[in-house]
Amino acid sequence: MTHSSVATIKVKDGQQASFEAVALKLVAAVKANEPGCLLYTLSKGDDPVTYVFMERYANDEALAAHRATDHFRSLGREMGAFMDGPPSVLRMKELG
Questions:
Q1: What is the torsion angle, in degrees rounded to the nearest 10, for the CA atoms of residue 21, residue 22, residue 28 and residue 32?
Q2: 45, 70, 71, 86: which has the highest count of C-beta atoms within 10 A?
Q3: How many CA atoms lie within 13 Å of 70's alpha carbon, on the beta-carbon side?
């Protein structure tokens, strides 16, 4: 079953460029190393401190593999320094 998620992240004001630099490294690493990840994008909202990751995985295994990667763990921690609180994550299982 295909899994999708939308993670909304608030970044500390003035830390946007630093956050983007690390987050875009993560996007590149996912795209280069995770064939089971069908979509992994970073977008910026109208609010200058709001970002959204949109993710889509082919199956449970691909999602589990993503969470276990070194790049997700290390860059995720690095991004945390620029975030204003934890992300809000909506996880979904596609029905059709």
A1: 150
A2: 71
A3: 1
pLDDT digits (tens, 9 = 90+) for 34-57: 999 999 999 998 999 999 999 999
- Phi first, then psi: give them for residue 50, nearest 5 degrees: -110, 130
CATH of residue 55: 3.30.70.100
In this prediction, residue 95 has a pLDDT band, given cuts at 50, 70 and 90, of: confident
Q: What is the CA radius of gyration of the chain?
A: 13
Q: Is the pTM of this model over 0.85?
A: yes
Q: Which domain, by its residues, includes 46?
A: 3-93
SS3 label, residue 55? strand
Helix (H/G/I), strand (E/B), else coil: 34: coil
